[in-house]
Amino acid sequence: MFRRIKNYALYGDTDKESYNSIRKKIEDSNRITALIFAAVAAVLIGIMLILSFFQEGFSDSKPVYIFGMIFSVLLILVSIASKKVPSLTYVAVYMAISVFLVYGIAIATLTRPEEQTVTFMVMLIFVPLIFVDRPVRMAIVLVFYIAAFIIMAVKTKIDPVLSVDITDAVIFGMLAIVAETVVYRAKIRGYVLEDRLHIMSETDQLTGLNNRNCYEMRLESYPAVYKHSISCIYVDVNGLHELNNANGHIAGDEMLQYIADCVKRQFGSKDTYRIGGDEYVAFSLDLPPEEVENKISVLREQVAERGYHAAIGFEFCNEKNVNINNLIVMAESRMYRDKSEYYKQHDRRAR
């Protein structure tokens, strides 16, 4: 029970690992929202500040509008800076929330203490819902501003307005905390589900490697990601058909999984793909050809330890703007030559 409450309060009814996997997505969304929010706030408060010089009804709130303009401009700068410094994202979020809640408190208690508060209550409910954060952290911030409003109301308002405003602040505050908890849970779980579906769409379910869909989406990006050189390693498993016929598909699957693990151990998981039933492609960035060949030698030894065999070919390029398709074709042709050498010494597969 305690664990469920903890996960609900800290991770939106998910878990730490799931929340961390989508944290960057939440930060990116919050940063953009805070920037838009700040720009809108600057425009709206700027209009009211201009009106305060010409309209008597707005003149009493001029100091509040000036504060709001300064705060909004500062928020814009922090939101822009948070792109390079992610930790500033949450500073921007709570600045955005603060600019409206402080504005609501100021209007209600400093400029119009004789009137029943409406602006603060509305902002208390709706402003936090624009962002996404850990529910417990937002709840603490809301409690802080509710307490600040009550303290300011006690100092500036008199009954019966005071009693009504304090009651409303408590009720609307509880509604705000419940609302933000429910909405954040839905948003966070939605992000987690989206992330899992994205991973599933790019992951081979048998081996855990990147699948062909992922391979085709990333292929054109490779010429831009290496600094000095790129190698393509093309692997094709030998004897899968015969193993399936002799020992069943479970044995064949075990071989494919084992060889996939061997390729991943040598060339990492990020740039390794299963592109067909028994074919794998890996890219090695900024490694000299000697090191790539050493890794291939180790790969061959690891595959042979289980009595398996794979045909392997690789092609190296140390020029900029490589034609990635030509690189793959050359690696594939070398793989076929390796396969041909293998079958000169072993019985051909039934075709």
Number of domains: 2
Strand content: 5-15%
The largest β sheet comes out as: 4 strands, antiparallel
* Spatial sequence of strands, sheet with the most strands: 2-3-1-4
Oligomer status: single chain
Low-confidence stretches: none
- Average pLDDT works out at 89
Counted by DSSP, the helix tally is 13
Q: Residue share in helices? A: 55-70%
- State Rg: 31 Å
Structural class: alpha+beta
What does it look like?
This protein has 351 residues and is α+β, with helices and mostly antiparallel strands. The protein has two domains: 2-202, no CATH class; 212-345, Reverse transcriptase/Diguanylate cyclase domain (Alpha-Beta Plaits), CATH 3.30.70. The chain has helices spanning 2-11, 16-52, 56-59, 62-81, 88-111, 119-126, 135-156, 161-202, 212-218, 240-247, 249-267, 289-305, 324-345; strands at 230-238, 272-274, 279-285, 309-317. A four-stranded antiparallel β-sheet has the order 2-3-1-4, sandwiched between helices. A hairpin with a 4-residue loop joins strand 2 (272-274) and strand 3 (279-285). The longest helix has 42 residues, at 161-202.
Could you give a quick summary of the protein structure above?
With 351 residues, the protein is an alpha+beta fold.
Key phrases:
351 residues; alpha+beta; Alpha-Beta Plaits; 2 domains; 4-stranded antiparallel β-sheet; 8% strand; elongated
SSE blueprint and pairings:
Blueprint: H1 2-11, H2 16-52, H3 56-59, H4 62-81, H5 88-111, H6 119-126, H7 135-156, H8 161-202, H9 212-218, E1 230-238, H10 240-247, H11 249-267, E2 272-274, E3 279-285, H12 289-305, E4 309-317, H13 324-345
Antiparallel strand pairs: 1-3, 1-4, 2-3
Helix pairs in contact: 2-4, 2-5, 2-8, 4-5, 5-6, 5-7, 6-8, 7-8, 10-11, 11-12
